[in-house]
Structure formats: C-alpha cells, structure tokens
Design a protein that fits this description.
Chain lengths: 100, 100
Amino acid sequence: MVSDRIRHTVVFTLIHQIGSDREDDFLQAAQQLAAIPGVEAFEVLAEISPKNNYRFGLSMEFANQAAYEQYNAHPDHIRFVQERWLSEVTDFLEIDYAAR
Amino acid sequence: MVSDRIRHTVVFTLIHQIGSDREDDFLQAAQQLAAIPGVEAFEVLAEISPKNNYRFGLSMEFANQAAYEQYNAHPDHIRFVQERWLSEVTDFLEIDYAAR
C-alpha cells in the first residue's frame, strides 16, 4: 500500500437469515457507500474463514486520513449507520490497514 | 474480487516491544512467505484502527482454494508457524474474503 493510503475494512454478521431478501437488501444498501466522495476500491465481500463467525466484509481505500474522515462525516454514511447498520448488524470488527 | 479468488488476511499482535529489532525481524521473516508458490498480492501492514488492539496484518491472495491449501501445507509456511508465529504472536484473528 502506498504511504498515506488507508484500507478501511469491517467484518460483520447480520440479523437476517442467510440468503434472504433482507440480507441482500442490506448488502445492496451497503454498496451505495461506494458513491461517497473519497471512497476507492470499494468491495462488498463474503467472509469464508471457518475460524471466525463473521459472514460479510466491506473493504475500501482512502488516499489519506482526511479522505477517511470526510467519509465518516458524510451524511450518506451517517444515515446508513443510523438507519441500517445499528439495527441489522449483530456483530462487527473494524480493521484499518496502512503501509509500514 | 474475481470469482474463485480468496483474500487471506490475519491481524495480530507481537510479544516484542513496539519498534524493536525483534519486531522488525519477525516482520521481515513474515515477508518471506510471499515467495511461497501461489501467493499473490502479499502485504505486511500496520493495523491503525483505535477500535481494536491488533498492531499488524498480513494480506495475500490465492487464485483458488487449491492454491490456498498448497500454501498452508508448504514446508516454509509450516516452519514459519512453528518457529516464529507460535512463540512470538500473542493474539490474532484470521479473516478470509471471497467474492459474493
């Protein structure tokens, strides 16, 4: 990863049944975060390791800390967290990577 | 991520003092895993989120599950786990991503 770049990731599980329409609807809503300015390399992923209980992941990159903070403060991000994440995600862990 | 591709990641903390030579030596040894056949997009990363206690990460990609299993079974990987990982890593979590 290049010097100031940050890869923001979050693994999570949903309240919804596996393979359900509501699960799919949540993941489609999450995909919309890709449109927020500063978000690069956005991915909605399946988490497949048998060594943890998380089922999904989001991964995105920011050019620097300022772009990351702009994303966090963006109304579309805040709305997604308040209207979807808080009520539909049962467990999650945020992991952020930078070059060393 | 393309269909069969797997992104294998692990976040971890070390027994060593932050910024110490022994920490650096461990991370350099980890970097050698990149030479194992099938390993792509290998990265040794700093974990920078204040929301967890992990300090480092490894990220790599495999073309498919067979390449991932070949890596796991490779003598250089097994030796690294036995000679370094088990005695120098205090906490870790493996997270594997695939396309959905």
